[in-house]
Amino acid sequence: MSLYEHVVISRPDISTAQVEEFVQNLATKIENMGGSVEGAEYWGLRNLAYRMKKNRKAHYSLLKVNALPDTIHEIERQHRINEDILRYMSIRVDEFSEDPSPILKKREERKRREERK
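Request: output the structure for the sequence above.
Response:
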């Protein structure tokens, strides 16, 4: 099996709870196909660099997946059908980083700065 980092960008008009439920369902699908989800991060509602399907913001989620390539292809096929998903990207990696993603690191740094004030 291979290691993948899978990022999903979903529509801004769905709620955070719906995004988290979607990520849970996605993890269940991956596990049913023989893979495993090593970790998941919700990055929040963020501004887009350019408009995607008339949207200026979107919900970002990251999943760290250990699965066969066929599983990733099937998940991406299902993403193309789902209207709530604006974009997705899967990248094969050699190993998962133990540190939080740069997005979460930046968020933690902001919180620390606010606490100092």
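The chain has a mean pLDDT of 91.
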